[in-house]
Protein backbone atom coordinates (compact mmCIF):
# COMPACT_ATOMS: atom_id res chain seq x y z
CA UNK A 1 0.00 0.00 0.00
CA UNK A 2 1.33 3.44 -0.90
CA UNK A 3 0.26 6.53 0.95
CA UNK A 4 -2.09 8.80 -0.99
CA UNK A 5 -0.14 11.41 -2.93
CA UNK A 6 -2.33 14.22 -1.64
CA UNK A 7 -4.94 14.79 1.03
CA UNK A 8 -8.27 13.42 -0.08
CA UNK A 9 -11.07 15.88 -0.72
CA UNK A 10 -14.62 15.53 0.55
CA UNK A 11 -15.68 14.26 -2.88
CA UNK A 12 -12.85 11.68 -2.89
CA UNK A 13 -13.88 10.43 0.54
CA UNK A 14 -17.56 10.19 -0.34
CA UNK A 15 -16.66 8.22 -3.49
CA UNK A 16 -14.26 6.02 -1.51
CA UNK A 17 -17.02 4.94 0.88
CA UNK A 18 -19.33 3.67 -1.83
CA UNK A 19 -17.73 0.26 -2.57
CA UNK A 20 -16.63 -0.53 0.99
CA UNK A 21 -19.26 0.84 3.36
CA UNK A 22 -22.71 -0.70 3.86
CA UNK A 23 -25.36 1.49 2.24
CA UNK A 24 -27.65 1.58 5.27
CA UNK A 25 -27.52 5.40 5.44
CA UNK A 26 -27.94 8.19 2.91
CA UNK A 27 -25.86 10.97 4.50
CA UNK A 28 -25.81 14.56 3.36
CA UNK A 29 -22.75 15.12 1.14
CA UNK A 30 -20.64 16.76 3.86
CA UNK A 31 -17.47 15.18 5.28
CA UNK A 32 -16.79 16.47 8.77
CA UNK A 33 -13.19 16.49 9.96
CA UNK A 34 -13.24 18.49 13.20
CA UNK A 35 -15.66 20.20 15.51
CA UNK A 36 -15.99 22.38 18.57
CA UNK A 37 -19.07 23.44 20.49
CA UNK A 38 -22.01 23.98 18.15
CA UNK A 39 -19.86 24.08 14.99
CA UNK A 40 -18.30 21.48 12.72
CA UNK A 41 -15.76 21.93 9.95
CA UNK A 42 -15.45 19.84 6.81
CA UNK A 43 -12.35 18.55 5.05
CA UNK A 44 -12.04 21.74 3.01
CA UNK A 45 -12.37 23.94 6.11
CA UNK A 46 -15.99 25.04 5.52
CA UNK A 47 -17.83 25.65 8.79
CA UNK A 48 -21.38 24.55 9.57
CA UNK A 49 -23.68 25.13 12.52
CA UNK A 50 -24.70 21.65 13.70
CA UNK A 51 -28.48 21.80 14.10
CA UNK A 52 -28.83 18.01 14.40
CA UNK A 53 -26.33 17.39 17.21
CA UNK A 54 -25.97 13.68 16.53
CA UNK A 55 -29.70 13.09 16.98
CA UNK A 56 -29.26 14.63 20.47
CA UNK A 57 -26.16 12.61 21.34
CA UNK A 58 -24.34 15.97 21.30
CA UNK A 59 -26.59 17.95 23.65
CA UNK A 60 -23.51 19.55 25.22
CA UNK A 61 -21.94 20.35 21.88
CA UNK A 62 -18.88 18.83 20.32
CA UNK A 63 -15.94 18.19 22.64
CA UNK A 64 -17.31 19.99 25.67
CA UNK A 65 -14.15 20.82 27.70
CA UNK A 66 -15.40 19.24 30.93
CA UNK A 67 -16.33 16.01 29.13
CA UNK A 68 -13.10 15.82 27.16
CA UNK A 69 -11.15 16.41 30.36
CA UNK A 70 -13.03 13.64 32.16
CA UNK A 71 -12.33 11.27 29.26
CA UNK A 72 -8.64 12.18 29.09
CA UNK A 73 -8.23 11.74 32.83
CA UNK A 74 -9.90 8.33 32.74
CA UNK A 75 -7.94 7.18 29.67
CA UNK A 76 -4.78 7.60 31.72
CA UNK A 77 -6.10 5.45 34.57
CA UNK A 78 -8.40 2.62 33.50
CA UNK A 79 -10.68 2.02 30.51
CA UNK A 80 -12.23 -1.44 30.84
CA UNK A 81 -12.59 -4.10 33.47
CA UNK A 82 -15.75 -5.95 32.36
CA UNK A 83 -18.32 -6.49 35.10
CA UNK A 84 -16.41 -9.58 36.24
CA UNK A 85 -14.71 -7.11 38.57
CA UNK A 86 -15.80 -3.86 40.18
CA UNK A 87 -14.37 -0.60 38.90
CA UNK A 88 -13.92 2.53 40.96
CA UNK A 89 -16.09 4.76 38.74
CA UNK A 90 -19.35 2.86 38.58
CA UNK A 91 -20.79 3.52 42.04
CA UNK A 92 -20.68 7.30 41.63
CA UNK A 93 -22.18 7.13 38.12
CA UNK A 94 -25.11 5.03 39.36
CA UNK A 95 -25.64 7.10 42.53
CA UNK A 96 -25.73 10.38 40.66
CA UNK A 97 -27.85 9.09 37.77
CA UNK A 98 -30.40 7.69 40.22
CA UNK A 99 -30.44 11.01 42.09
CA UNK A 100 -30.76 13.03 38.87
CA UNK A 101 -33.74 10.99 37.66
CA UNK A 102 -35.45 10.43 41.01
CA UNK A 103 -35.31 6.65 40.55
CA UNK A 104 -33.40 4.02 42.52
CA UNK A 105 -31.26 1.63 40.50
CA UNK A 106 -29.23 1.73 37.30
CA UNK A 107 -28.48 -0.96 34.73
CA UNK A 108 -25.64 0.38 32.59
CA UNK A 109 -25.56 -0.55 28.89
CA UNK A 110 -24.00 1.03 25.80
CA UNK A 111 -26.34 1.90 22.94
CA UNK A 112 -29.92 3.07 23.02
CA UNK A 113 -31.21 -0.11 21.41
CA UNK A 114 -29.54 -2.13 24.16
CA UNK A 115 -31.25 -0.02 26.81
CA UNK A 116 -34.61 -0.66 25.11
CA UNK A 117 -33.91 -4.41 24.83
CA UNK A 118 -32.89 -4.44 28.48
CA UNK A 119 -36.04 -2.56 29.46
CA UNK A 120 -38.15 -5.12 27.60
CA UNK A 121 -36.40 -8.03 29.32
CA UNK A 122 -36.74 -6.33 32.69
CA UNK A 123 -40.47 -5.74 32.17
CA UNK A 124 -41.06 -9.34 31.10
CA UNK A 125 -39.15 -10.70 34.10
CA UNK A 126 -41.12 -8.40 36.39
CA UNK A 127 -44.37 -9.59 34.83
CA UNK A 128 -43.56 -13.25 35.57
CA UNK A 129 -41.87 -12.85 38.95
CA UNK A 130 -44.01 -10.11 40.50
CA UNK A 131 -47.24 -9.69 38.57
CA UNK A 132 -47.74 -13.43 38.05
CA UNK A 133 -48.31 -13.48 34.29
CA UNK A 134 -48.24 -17.11 32.99
CA UNK A 135 -44.91 -18.11 31.39
CA UNK A 136 -44.24 -16.69 27.92
CA UNK A 137 -47.52 -14.74 27.84
CA UNK A 138 -46.32 -11.25 28.79
CA UNK A 139 -47.13 -8.46 26.36
CA UNK A 140 -45.82 -4.94 26.01
CA UNK A 141 -48.02 -2.19 24.61
CA UNK A 142 -46.24 0.26 22.31
CA UNK A 143 -47.27 3.21 20.14
CA UNK A 144 -47.56 3.42 16.37
CA UNK A 145 -44.83 5.44 14.63
CA UNK A 146 -42.45 4.64 17.48
CA UNK A 147 -38.69 4.61 17.14
CA UNK A 148 -36.85 2.54 19.72
CA UNK A 149 -33.85 1.27 17.73
CA UNK A 150 -32.85 -1.30 15.13
CA UNK A 151 -32.49 -4.76 16.68
CA UNK A 152 -34.68 -7.63 15.49
CA UNK A 153 -36.92 -7.48 18.56
CA UNK A 154 -37.29 -3.71 18.35
CA UNK A 155 -38.13 -3.62 14.63
CA UNK A 156 -40.67 -6.35 15.42
CA UNK A 157 -42.91 -3.63 16.86
CA UNK A 158 -42.02 -0.83 14.46
CA UNK A 159 -44.72 0.43 12.11
CA UNK A 160 -42.15 1.71 9.62
CA UNK A 161 -42.12 -0.77 6.73
CA UNK A 162 -38.66 0.35 5.60
CA UNK A 163 -37.29 -0.58 9.01
CA UNK A 164 -39.10 -3.96 9.06
CA UNK A 165 -39.48 -5.37 5.58
CA UNK A 166 -37.12 -8.25 4.94
CA UNK A 167 -36.09 -8.73 8.56
CA UNK A 168 -38.67 -11.20 9.85
CA UNK A 169 -39.53 -13.48 11.55
CA UNK A 170 -40.37 -11.05 14.29
CA UNK A 171 -40.44 -11.29 18.07
CA UNK A 172 -44.00 -11.74 19.36
CA UNK A 173 -45.50 -10.16 22.47
CA UNK A 174 -46.15 -6.58 21.40
CA UNK A 175 -49.43 -4.73 20.94
CA UNK A 176 -49.39 -1.53 18.90
CA UNK A 177 -51.86 1.29 19.62
CA UNK A 178 -52.08 4.81 18.18
CA UNK A 179 -49.88 7.36 19.96
CA UNK A 180 -51.55 10.06 22.03
CA UNK A 181 -54.74 7.99 22.42
CA UNK A 182 -55.51 7.01 26.01
CA UNK A 183 -58.73 5.19 25.11
CA UNK A 184 -56.86 2.90 22.70
CA UNK A 185 -54.21 2.29 25.33
CA UNK A 186 -56.82 1.43 27.94
CA UNK A 187 -58.45 -1.05 25.55
CA UNK A 188 -55.11 -2.75 24.84
CA UNK A 189 -53.99 -3.27 28.43
CA UNK A 190 -54.99 -6.56 30.05
CA UNK A 191 -53.82 -9.08 32.67
CA UNK A 192 -50.87 -10.12 30.49
CA UNK A 193 -49.56 -6.59 30.05
CA UNK A 194 -46.09 -6.21 31.51
CA UNK A 195 -45.56 -2.61 30.44
CA UNK A 196 -46.50 0.32 28.31
CA UNK A 197 -43.42 1.50 26.40
CA UNK A 198 -43.58 4.95 24.82
CA UNK A 199 -41.47 7.95 23.88
CA UNK A 200 -42.75 10.97 25.88
CA UNK A 201 -42.17 12.90 22.64
CA UNK A 202 -41.76 10.87 19.45
CA UNK A 203 -38.45 11.97 17.95
CA UNK A 204 -37.94 10.12 14.69
CA UNK A 205 -41.65 10.38 13.88
CA UNK A 206 -41.10 14.15 13.57
CA UNK A 207 -40.98 15.49 17.13
CA UNK A 208 -44.57 14.54 17.89
CA UNK A 209 -45.58 16.19 21.17
CA UNK A 210 -48.63 14.48 22.71
CA UNK A 211 -51.57 16.44 24.09
CA UNK A 212 -51.29 17.85 27.59
CA UNK A 213 -52.44 15.16 29.98
CA UNK A 214 -51.38 12.18 27.85
CA UNK A 215 -48.28 11.31 29.89
CA UNK A 216 -50.14 11.83 33.16
CA UNK A 217 -52.90 9.63 31.73
CA UNK A 218 -50.41 6.88 30.84
CA UNK A 219 -49.06 7.09 34.39
CA UNK A 220 -52.51 6.87 35.94
CA UNK A 221 -53.59 4.02 33.64
CA UNK A 222 -50.46 1.90 34.18
CA UNK A 223 -50.65 2.40 37.94
CA UNK A 224 -54.36 1.54 38.06
CA UNK A 225 -54.05 -1.56 35.86
CA UNK A 226 -50.84 -2.81 37.48
CA UNK A 227 -48.32 -2.64 34.66
CA UNK A 228 -45.09 -0.73 34.24
CA UNK A 229 -44.66 2.62 32.50
CA UNK A 230 -41.41 2.56 30.52
CA UNK A 231 -40.40 5.97 29.17
CA UNK A 232 -37.89 5.91 26.33
CA UNK A 233 -36.11 9.24 26.84
CA UNK A 234 -33.08 8.28 24.80
CA UNK A 235 -33.68 11.28 22.52
CA UNK A 236 -36.04 13.46 24.58
CA UNK A 237 -34.08 13.27 27.82
CA UNK A 238 -31.08 15.03 29.35
CA UNK A 239 -31.96 18.67 28.78
CA UNK A 240 -33.29 18.67 25.22
CA UNK A 241 -36.82 19.81 26.06
CA UNK A 242 -35.86 22.40 28.68
CA UNK A 243 -36.13 19.91 31.54
CA UNK A 244 -33.86 17.07 32.54
CA UNK A 245 -36.56 14.65 31.37
CA UNK A 246 -39.49 15.25 29.04
CA UNK A 247 -41.84 13.49 31.50
CA UNK A 248 -41.19 16.34 33.94
CA UNK A 249 -43.38 18.61 31.81
CA UNK A 250 -46.31 16.66 33.27
CA UNK A 251 -44.66 15.94 36.63
CA UNK A 252 -44.77 12.25 35.83
CA UNK A 253 -42.38 9.60 37.13
CA UNK A 254 -42.13 6.40 35.08
CA UNK A 255 -41.28 3.03 36.64
CA UNK A 256 -38.51 2.48 34.12
CA UNK A 257 -36.55 5.14 32.29
CA UNK A 258 -34.39 4.50 29.23
CA UNK A 259 -31.49 6.87 28.58
CA UNK A 260 -28.76 6.94 25.97
CA UNK A 261 -27.46 9.32 23.31
CA UNK A 262 -26.43 12.45 25.30
CA UNK A 263 -25.49 10.29 28.31
CA UNK A 264 -22.23 9.51 26.47
CA UNK A 265 -21.40 13.19 26.00
CA UNK A 266 -20.82 12.63 22.27
CA UNK A 267 -17.66 10.71 23.18
CA UNK A 268 -18.57 7.10 23.94
CA UNK A 269 -21.81 5.14 23.72
CA UNK A 270 -23.41 5.13 27.16
CA UNK A 271 -26.97 4.04 27.86
CA UNK A 272 -28.84 3.04 30.96
CA UNK A 273 -32.04 1.58 32.28
CA UNK A 274 -33.02 3.38 35.46
CA UNK A 275 -35.82 1.92 37.54
CA UNK A 276 -37.53 1.68 40.85
CA UNK A 277 -35.90 -0.80 43.22
CA UNK A 278 -38.86 -3.25 43.23
CA UNK A 279 -38.57 -3.52 39.46
CA UNK A 280 -34.81 -3.69 38.97
CA UNK A 281 -34.65 -6.14 41.87
CA UNK A 282 -35.99 -8.94 39.65
CA UNK A 283 -32.61 -9.24 37.89
CA UNK A 284 -30.10 -11.66 39.38
CA UNK A 285 -26.48 -12.50 38.48
CA UNK A 286 -26.14 -14.09 35.05
CA UNK A 287 -29.60 -13.15 33.81
CA UNK A 288 -28.48 -10.12 31.81
CA UNK A 289 -25.25 -8.33 31.02
CA UNK A 290 -22.90 -6.54 28.68
CA UNK A 291 -19.12 -6.72 28.30
CA UNK A 292 -18.78 -2.97 27.85
CA UNK A 293 -21.76 -1.80 29.93
CA UNK A 294 -20.63 0.27 32.89
CA UNK A 295 -17.00 0.40 31.77
CA UNK A 296 -14.92 2.98 33.67
CA UNK A 297 -14.45 5.28 30.67
CA UNK A 298 -18.19 5.33 30.01
CA UNK A 299 -18.89 5.82 33.72
CA UNK A 300 -16.41 8.72 33.94
CA UNK A 301 -17.87 10.48 30.89
CA UNK A 302 -21.42 9.71 32.00
CA UNK A 303 -20.71 11.13 35.45
CA UNK A 304 -19.31 14.30 33.87
CA UNK A 305 -22.50 14.56 31.78
CA UNK A 306 -24.63 14.23 34.91
CA UNK A 307 -22.50 16.91 36.58
CA UNK A 308 -23.31 19.31 33.73
CA UNK A 309 -27.01 18.57 34.13
CA UNK A 310 -26.95 18.92 37.93
CA UNK A 311 -26.39 22.67 37.54
CA UNK A 312 -29.67 23.05 35.62
CA UNK A 313 -27.97 25.56 33.32
CA UNK A 314 -28.46 23.54 30.12
CA UNK A 315 -32.10 22.87 30.92
CA UNK A 316 -32.72 26.59 31.59
CA UNK A 317 -30.90 27.62 28.42
CA UNK A 318 -32.90 25.09 26.36
CA UNK A 319 -36.14 26.38 27.86
CA UNK A 320 -35.23 30.04 27.21
CA UNK A 321 -34.00 29.51 23.66
CA UNK A 322 -36.92 27.15 23.11
CA UNK A 323 -39.12 30.25 23.21
CA UNK A 324 -36.93 31.92 20.57
CA UNK A 325 -37.13 28.80 18.41
CA UNK A 326 -40.92 28.55 18.77
CA UNK A 327 -41.47 32.24 18.06
CA UNK A 328 -39.13 32.12 15.06
CA UNK A 329 -40.89 29.10 13.60
CA UNK A 330 -44.30 30.66 14.23
CA UNK A 331 -43.17 33.56 12.00
CA UNK A 332 -42.39 31.08 9.22
CA UNK A 333 -45.80 29.42 9.21
CA UNK A 334 -47.38 30.31 5.89
CA UNK A 335 -43.97 31.24 4.49
CA UNK A 336 -42.96 27.77 3.41
CA UNK A 337 -43.67 26.12 6.75
CA UNK A 338 -47.01 24.30 6.99
CA UNK A 339 -46.75 23.69 10.71
CA UNK A 340 -44.35 22.62 13.42
CA UNK A 341 -44.12 21.07 16.84
CA UNK A 342 -41.50 22.07 19.36
CA UNK A 343 -40.50 21.70 22.97
CA UNK A 344 -37.32 23.29 24.25
CA UNK A 345 -34.56 23.20 21.65
CA UNK A 346 -36.26 20.51 19.61
CA UNK A 347 -38.61 20.99 16.68
CA UNK A 348 -40.17 19.04 13.85
CA UNK A 349 -40.92 21.41 11.00
CA UNK A 350 -43.28 20.42 8.18
CA UNK A 351 -42.10 22.12 5.00
CA UNK A 352 -44.57 22.85 2.19
CA UNK A 353 -43.87 19.94 -0.23
CA UNK A 354 -44.21 22.44 -3.10
CA UNK A 355 -40.92 23.97 -1.92
CA UNK A 356 -39.05 20.70 -1.68
CA UNK A 357 -38.63 17.46 0.18
CA UNK A 358 -37.03 17.45 3.61
CA UNK A 359 -33.93 16.12 1.92
CA UNK A 360 -33.82 18.98 -0.60
CA UNK A 361 -34.28 21.59 2.13
CA UNK A 362 -31.55 19.90 4.19
CA UNK A 363 -29.16 20.08 1.21
CA UNK A 364 -30.05 23.72 0.62
CA UNK A 365 -29.35 24.52 4.29
CA UNK A 366 -26.08 22.60 4.11
CA UNK A 367 -24.92 24.89 1.31
CA UNK A 368 -25.86 27.81 3.58
CA UNK A 369 -23.75 26.41 6.43
CA UNK A 370 -26.39 24.70 8.54
CA UNK A 371 -26.63 20.96 9.09
CA UNK A 372 -30.06 19.43 9.67
CA UNK A 373 -31.64 16.13 8.72
CA UNK A 374 -35.06 15.30 7.37
CA UNK A 375 -37.14 12.79 9.29
CA UNK A 376 -40.05 11.72 7.11
CA UNK A 377 -41.26 13.21 3.84
CA UNK A 378 -41.10 16.99 4.06
CA UNK A 379 -40.40 17.20 7.79
CA UNK A 380 -37.05 18.41 9.08
CA UNK A 381 -35.91 18.13 12.64
CA UNK A 382 -34.09 20.95 14.42
CA UNK A 383 -32.12 19.85 17.48
CA UNK A 384 -29.10 22.11 17.94
CA UNK A 385 -26.60 21.50 20.72
CA UNK A 386 -27.82 23.08 23.96
CA UNK A 387 -24.66 25.21 23.76
CA UNK A 388 -26.07 27.22 20.84
CA UNK A 389 -26.27 30.96 21.53
CA UNK A 390 -29.32 33.13 20.97
CA UNK A 391 -27.57 34.96 18.13
CA UNK A 392 -26.64 31.69 16.42
CA UNK A 393 -30.20 30.45 16.70
CA UNK A 394 -31.71 33.67 15.35
CA UNK A 395 -29.21 33.63 12.49
CA UNK A 396 -30.08 29.97 11.71
CA UNK A 397 -33.79 30.83 11.63
CA UNK A 398 -32.98 33.65 9.19
CA UNK A 399 -31.11 31.19 6.99
CA UNK A 400 -34.08 28.81 7.11
CA UNK A 401 -36.39 31.63 6.07
CA UNK A 402 -34.16 32.42 3.06
CA UNK A 403 -33.87 28.74 2.13
CA UNK A 404 -37.67 28.48 2.02
CA UNK A 405 -38.11 31.41 -0.39
C1 LIG B 1 -31.89 6.83 18.94
C2 LIG B 1 -32.97 6.20 19.71
C3 LIG B 1 -32.90 4.87 20.13
C4 LIG B 1 -31.77 3.93 19.71
O1 LIG B 1 -30.53 4.38 20.11
P1 LIG B 1 -29.20 3.77 19.43
O2 LIG B 1 -28.08 4.29 20.30
O3 LIG B 1 -29.14 4.31 18.03
O4 LIG B 1 -29.32 2.30 19.46
C5 LIG B 1 -33.92 4.37 20.92
N1 LIG B 1 -34.95 5.15 21.26
C6 LIG B 1 -35.06 6.43 20.88
C7 LIG B 1 -36.24 7.24 21.33
C8 LIG B 1 -34.09 7.00 20.07
O5 LIG B 1 -34.22 8.26 19.65
UniProtKB/TrEMBL annotation:
Example of a GO biological process term: L-proline biosynthetic process
Cofactor (UniProt): pyridoxal 5'-phosphate
SUPFAM superfamilies: PLP-dependent transferases (SSF53383)
Organism, as annotated: Streptomyces misionensis
Record protein name field: ornithine aminotransferase
EC id: 2.6.1.13
Similarity remark: Belongs to the class-III pyridoxal-phosphate-dependent aminotransferase family.
Gene name of this polypeptide: rocD
Source species taxonomy: Bacteria, Bacillati, Actinomycetota, Actinomycetes, Kitasatosporales
Keyword annotations from UniProtKB, A to Z: Amino-acid biosynthesis, Aminotransferase, Proline biosynthesis, Pyridoxal phosphate, Transferase
GO molecular function, one term: ornithine aminotransferase activity
Pathway where it operates: Amino-acid biosynthesis; L-proline biosynthesis; L-glutamate 5-semialdehyde from L-ornithine: step 1/1
UniProt keyword annotation of Amino-acid biosynthesis present: yes
